[in-house]
Amino acid sequence: MPVRKILQYPHPLLREVCRPVDEIDDEVRIHIRNLVDTMRASPGVALAAPQIGVPRRIIAVDVTTRCPGAGLIVLVNPEIVAKGRMKTVREGCLSIPQYTADIRRAETVTVRGLNSEGKEVFIESSGLEAVALQHEVDHLDGILFIDRVESIRSLFRRKKPGP
Ligand SMILES: [Zn+2]
């Protein structure tokens, strides 16, 4: 069962700048499968490779449970190439399940990367999916949502750990 343990803050690997993927080989394909399976088994809508202990630039996002029809996005070496207007959103993280906070994120993004077959793709996204893409790309640079909290007053402790 390729479901991995999700690393919890303050695990040092969550602060690493992850290495780009040179080639989609068998090892990378296994990382992708583990990432997607672990995300699906979790209460969250997205996951980055460092969260399962793999410091490589790979992310998975699937907001279909909240936005029907969205579908699975797997991106290797993702890069945000365009951003729309900023808005305030409520965020949490599977690696910091005790807290949520208000964060400024772009409403829309264009992300360039490779898909799981190694083909270059451009993804234009909005809403929850766009927010999740920005959150996951941050993970690849060792940035966590708590680094982007503008006001400590917006940081809330959850009653029960969750997504
Ligand atoms: Zn996260």
Number of strands: 8
Secondary structure tally, helices: 2
Inertia-based shape? globular
Largest sheet: 5 strands, antiparallel
CATH class group: Alpha Beta
CATH architecture: Alpha-Beta Complex
| CATH topology grouping | Peptide Deformylase
CATH superfamily, by name, is: Peptide deformylase
Between the first and last Cα atoms, what is the distance in angstroms?
Answer: 22 Å
Average pLDDT score: 94
Which ranges are low-confidence, i.e. pLDDT below 50, for 5 or more consecutive residues? none
Distinct bound molecules: zinc ion
Structural class: alpha+beta
- Percent helix: 10-25%
- The string of secondary-structure elements, in order, is HEEEEEEEHE
% residues in beta strands: 25-35%
Strand order of the largest sheet: 1-2-3-6-7
**From the alpha-carbon coordinates, what is the Rg to the nearest angstrom?**
15 Å
User: What is the count of distinct domains?
Assistant: 1
